[in-house]
Amino acid sequence: MHQDVERILYTEEELKNRVRELGMQITADYRGKAPVLASVLRGSYIFMADLTRAIDLPISVDFMAVSSYGSGTASSGQVEIKKDLSDSIEGKDLLIVEDILDSGNTLYYLLDVLRARKPASVRICTLMDKPARRQKPIKADYVGFSIPDAFIVGYGLDYDEKYRNLPYVGVLKPSVYGG
Ligand code: IMP
Ligand code: MG
After folding, report:
1. Domains of the chain
2. CA–CA separation, 67 vs 89, rounded Å?
3. What are the backbone dihedrals phi and psi of residue 4, each rounded to the nearest 5 degrees, phi first?
4. Global pTM value
5. Ligand 1 atom with least separation from CA of 157
6. At what angle do helices 12-29 and 45-53 cross, to 10 degrees?
7. What is the mean pLDDT of residues 55-79?
8. Ligand 1 and 51: CB distance under 6 A
9. Beta carbon of 105 within 6 Å of any ligand 1 atom
């Protein structure tokens, strides 16, 4: 285990199994459709790679990057699109793939922007959900794990751009971010 990690929350094996279940559920729900999976970079890149391979549908993938300003471990209501989707989503079944739903500020803003482009449907799939931290009324349609309020890293999730490559999800030691 990494020295900055307090404890492992989900092992590589647990992540793999849950992502496979999500993929099966999405496959069943979208049968006969060809959804566009839009990953919100950077935190969801590993989840996206594994989730798409667990879906047995003629999907397409697209990517966007946003930044939200706030302190080290919290986002704010100010969201900026750093990289937009490459293709039009008009008339498409859009599935937004997020790493973690925390305050909801990021998705609240994104949903507004994306719905204005007239997709046929919009759903949210998030690997992690911290419902206790919600500031905006956002609910994900697919949730990998609902977790308590702790700052987590690994499997794509970072603190200060570090720890993304840990194969498990762990709780970061508060001393690392001065908590
Ligand atoms: P929200 O706008 O507060 O919902 O923030 C969502 C974004 O904040 C996520 O997509 C993550 O990039 C980041 N974030 C929130 N909580 C954590 C965490 O525990 N670890 C790493 N990143 C987090
Ligand atoms: Mg993110």
Report:
1. 12-150 (3.40.50.2020)
2. 21
3. -90, -5
4. 0.95
5. 21
6. 60
7. 83
8. no
9. yes
